[in-house]
Amino acid sequence: MEMYPFLIVFLYLLESVASENLIQTINDTIGAENYTYYRVSGVGRLRLELTSMYGDADLYVSHITLSPTFNEYELKSTTCGMDVVEIPAFLTRPIGVAVYGYPVKRNETEYSLSVYFVSKYDDSDYSSLDSMYTLRDSDSKNDVNAGQATPNGQQSYQDKEEEEISVSETLWTILLTILKVVFEVLL
């Protein structure tokens, strides 16, 4: 019976591993009031995690400019702890990422920036999914939405790829749910 909490933690970790993949981690230092710029070209939904080892670094993200600042950005996180920014899949790539060294008592900030691919959908993806399956008034009647057949009756390659990803996510969710139920019944 003492193994039950371990199994819950194990299943939770299994579910999080199945839905997120670490792409890259960068460790660096930055001077106070300076920027370090990165370009993210990866497709899909991404999560950036910026951890300040000492000092305080802030995170600014833009799909419009590759050199975002604290005056020009679309997404940001400026906490004193871990900074996290979720980049929706529908933002155009490449994306500019700026790490800003906030001036504190030290002249340098040491940080770690990690990029994760997130395969699970959540509420923030709703607007992109809605736009994929809804014609807007400004769209012409001849436009074809993603997920519908093209004029020759064939689905596009991108539609098929998105459908395969959706099926694999659904299968993972079902498998993890079955495993949870089995372990709860056994214990």
From TrEMBL:
Which keywords are on file for this protein?
Glycoprotein, Secreted, Signal
Instruction: Map out region (Disordered) in residue numbers.
Output: 138-161
Record's signal peptide: 1-19
Transport among the record's keywords? no
Q: Check the record and name the Pfam families matching this protein.
A: UPF0669
Keyword flag Glycoprotein: yes
A GO cellular component entry from the record = extracellular region
Which compartments is it annotated to reside in? Secreted
> Matching InterPro entries, A to Z?
UPF0669
Q: Where is the composition biased (Polar residues)?
A: 143-157
> What family is this protein classified in?
Belongs to the UPF0669 family.
The name on file for this protein is Uncharacterized protein
Q: Which organism is it from?
A: Mizuhopecten yessoensis
